[in-house]
Amino acid sequence: MAVNLPRGFRAGAVRAGIKPSGKPDLALLASGLPASWAYAATQNRAAAPSIHRGRALYAQGGPLRAVVVNAGNANCATGERGFRDDFLMAELAARRLGLPLEEVLTASTGVIGVPLPVEKIEASLPQIALTPTVEAFAEAILTTDLVVKVAEREVAGARIVGVAKGSGMIHPNMATMLAFLVTDAKVPQEALRASWRGVVDRTFNQVTVDGDTSTNDLALLMANGAYGEVPLGPFFEAVEEVARELARKIARDGEGATKLMTVRVQGAATEEEARRAARAVAASALWKSALYGNDPNWGRILAALGNSGARFDPLKVEIRLQGIPLYRGGALPFDRERASQAMRAEEVEVFADLGEGPFSAEAFGCDLTEGYVRINALYTT
């Protein structure tokens, strides 16, 4: 079923020939009105030119009207040419839409170290037909993803629609994917930016697939005000719901994954420690391998918690897997075959209570399979 964008937004995509597969790989998202925006980007020191340019535009504080995205080529580690090519891609999109250059954001995703074929972008951008639906855009931004990722909510009559891509090179350090959320609610830019960082920390920054943070990734929220004002409390709750749903979809679509892992931690001394503890379990290669093999080896969970930096006394910790108590200050008797059978679900939940305080958090990950190794062993060959 087609998902319509909020009022005033249009999107589209085209096959530009950037992806070797010949699938759609060049996309535009545009607003008919100037939009306030909030932005978070990767902290990887080898960040791509698109990230550098995005940070500079963000610091200027002006409105945003459009995003142009190419998939199949990261345009990263391509020297000075990469910066020129990124600028040209923005310039071509601005010309296509009749917008000032500073109101157009760029994003790239794909193979690192390969020059961007800007001649293909120049030839293809005029062919993009903008429509009120999001599917073409959501498909064109994918790389190794197996599924399109879209989420939507409504709050007081305004709509929020989010799309994301992400399957590998996924690990918290903002960002861990490409994510674009748009809304027709009218929200002051200061409020948008003040809240977005926390939303990102609690959702996208709690996703891990393989422990590698990408050089190119970002999370963007645009509000064009076409609907009007809404209560900000419920609005930001809805934004976080959209971001959380997208984060879960990224984890479930992890390269080679067969199941989604949700890690819930409570009883932490601080919110940051709760997040770190949950992420550590979701990121543990040992535990992710056990998850794939349906092995209820709770010792790997406890060890990951201990490596997270979160404070706790092992004598006060409790661990449950799919609701089955495994550890409470010491090993508990449990039916290993029953626990193993419970792990064969499409979603597996790990619960840990650290017994230190009132804070809680969750993280999202997936199992580690031969499929992940296959995909990444042959990524450029």
UniProtKB/TrEMBL annotation:
Catalytic activity, as annotated: N(2)-acetyl-L-ornithine + L-glutamate = N-acetyl-L-glutamate + L-ornithine; L-glutamate + acetyl-CoA = N-acetyl-L-glutamate + CoA + H(+)
Swiss-Prot/TrEMBL keywords: Acyltransferase, Amino-acid biosynthesis, Arginine biosynthesis, Autocatalytic cleavage, Cytoplasm, Multifunctional enzyme, Transferase
Metabolic or biological pathway, per its Swiss-Prot or TrEMBL entry: Amino-acid biosynthesis; L-arginine biosynthesis; L-ornithine and N-acetyl-L-glutamate from L-glutamate and N(2)-acetyl-L-ornithine (cyclic): step 1/1; Amino-acid biosynthesis; L-arginine biosynthesis; N(2)-acetyl-L-ornithine from L-glutamate: step 1/4
Residues that hold substrate according to the record: T143, K165, T176, E255, N376, T381
Key word Lipid metabolism present: no
Coiled-coil boundaries: none
EC identifiers of the protein: 2.3.1.35, 2.3.1.1
Positions marked as site (Involved in the stabilization of negative charge on the oxyanion by the formation of the oxyanion hole): T109, G110
Site positions for Cleavage: A175, T176
Membership in a protein family: Belongs to the ArgJ family.
Subunit structure: Heterotetramer of two alpha and two beta chains.
NCBIfam families on file: ArgJ, PRK05388.1
Name of this protein: Arginine biosynthesis bifunctional protein ArgJ
